[in-house]
Design a protein that fits this description.
The structure is a homodimer of 336-residue chains.
Chain A (H helix, E strand, L loop, with lengths): L2 E7 L3 E7 L5 E8 L7 H16 L4 E8 L2 E2 L6 E3 L6 E3 L1 H9 L3 E5 H12 L8 E6 L3 E7 L2 E3 L35 H13 L6 H4 L9 H9 L3 H25 L3 E5 L7 H14 L11 E3 L6 H14 L4 H11 L6
Parallel strand pairs in A: 1-4, 4-8, 9-12, 12-13
Antiparallel strand pairs in A: 1-2, 2-3, 5-6, 6-7, 9-10, 10-11
Helix pairs in contact in A: 3-9, 4-7, 6-7, 7-8
Amino acid sequence: MALFIGVDIGGTKVLATAVSSTGRVSRTARRTTPGRRVEARLVEDALTEAVEEIAGTRRVRAIGIAAAGFVDAQGERVRFAPHLPWRDEGVRARLQERWSAPVVLDNDANCAARAEVTYGAIGGAETALLVTMGTGIGGAVVLDGEVHRGFNGMAGEFGHMQVVPGGHACECGGAGCWEQYSSGNALVRLARDAIVAGEPTTLAEACGEDPGQLTGPMVTDAAAAGDAVALRAFATVGDWLGVGLANLVAAFDPEIVVIGGGLSAAGDLLLDPARSALRASLVGSAHRDVPPVARAALGPEAGAIGAADLARQTFRIGGTRARARLRAARGTAPRR
Amino acid sequence: MALFIGVDIGGTKVLATAVSSTGRVSRTARRTTPGRRVEARLVEDALTEAVEEIAGTRRVRAIGIAAAGFVDAQGERVRFAPHLPWRDEGVRARLQERWSAPVVLDNDANCAARAEVTYGAIGGAETALLVTMGTGIGGAVVLDGEVHRGFNGMAGEFGHMQVVPGGHACECGGAGCWEQYSSGNALVRLARDAIVAGEPTTLAEACGEDPGQLTGPMVTDAAAAGDAVALRAFATVGDWLGVGLANLVAAFDPEIVVIGGGLSAAGDLLLDPARSALRASLVGSAHRDVPPVARAALGPEAGAIGAADLARQTFRIGGTRARARLRAARGTAPRR
């Protein structure tokens, strides 16, 4: 059996997977992302280690990379990645050469959407939006059952839509971006502010009385146990999620909205307030179908699964496209 | 020559046109829209008069209607129209019966986008956004060179995306909608406020010292003549236009953005501040192509031209589809 590997590289971790043709993950390997202000080489070393751990001695047919950043329309370059050191770099060809195996590259949310289309919650829907709630917000657009990459390959950058003029400063350089109000970071900030304000909450103990140590999973656990501060933080983040979704639904009119990313593990704690706010904020909601807001099916491995699927679909057909692509990458393509 | 008619019905006027296969308008007829709180019959009478004026004694091959409202995915019903009396009504079949000619129906901005794709400013672009700036904001999404209608037929409702939490109240029942900050209404409100505040401006005289009589064209003329208040109103409306476009471009990543509607007649007075704000607000704008913001090519007739084109494309092929559709509409379709 040919081995297809999918690797997801985010701001905090690298996840490499071996993925079967049915989307099943048979092996995983993890590394810590070295950071955003390091040599790009260090990030690529971490990727290489994770890929080699998966491959072992087996022959690798192709590798897909899901990157947390702007990937160009050709799938060649990472143009910009707020949480990674790549700046307009030809990552695909460089890693293909280093790994001596065919490599494909796409944005992480696009890969996750691909996985949810093929194996998960998007299923047969023709038009869908995926919103990934992690540290920030990522996203992807599915049209006619395929991921819509846009003219620059940058469609689906929902997290930096402005929802509050002059609002919270954002790492992107802007202000009032959606992810400043609805994301893991926003959740933790809301809960932290409540701790600092001295509100009664089990979170103070959970973080060892040091609000700087508070994490998203701590807030999720506390909310699940009924802590009022944690529940309110989820209500606020979920409400903002729904307000932003209303904007996206007005623009795209999708059949379904799927919420992925780490924060989606909170399930209805997050999704119920989002559904209410979507219905309340969406123009003409009494005169249309309001799309269901569903939790992603594939969890934190979705990006890697989608990257492996992209590699498989690109390189499966008798290797013809693979060879053509490799020849082109090496500058040895036959003249036409 | 078969006669194809396109009719645009908006909140203030009805425009009927005879349109050639090259998109040329050979005849026009106008009526005033009777209002939003009247019997639907009165609006349909106005449409009928305009269509009959165009048709005269010629045989009509098909009629397209561009309606300012939510049209369902099947093109049968107007689900909701803030400025018209239709509420979930089967307008297409009713008018087809009344007119004894094949009728097609779509949203007005979708029709305008269709016209700009076929004959105008969108041209060969695969992915484009049309934003129509009139009394409010309408919009349409072009993907793979075709108008994307969405699951409910309601994609492109950009005007009611929330840009200011708890902002200006909107006719849609929401608050802080984009069109409250960037539209003909917003332009007039800004200029009116300046007149009421006693700021020196030629607009006071233009409206006969009655700010309630101020119109968008008056503000456009004053800005073109260098009036500071009018110029500032355009700068503000244009800036908000660009901020909203940045949100849409982040989500769709289009190749081009086209601005239509009555306000687009102001040209660069409106578009220059919009271009600046788009570049300033768009995430990662230094690492991507920022799409050009172009003025629509077909002016106020775009909706009617697109409606006629929709009629032509639906009913041109030897009449086969036309007859099948008519049979289906009349319940006389052959059993399969």
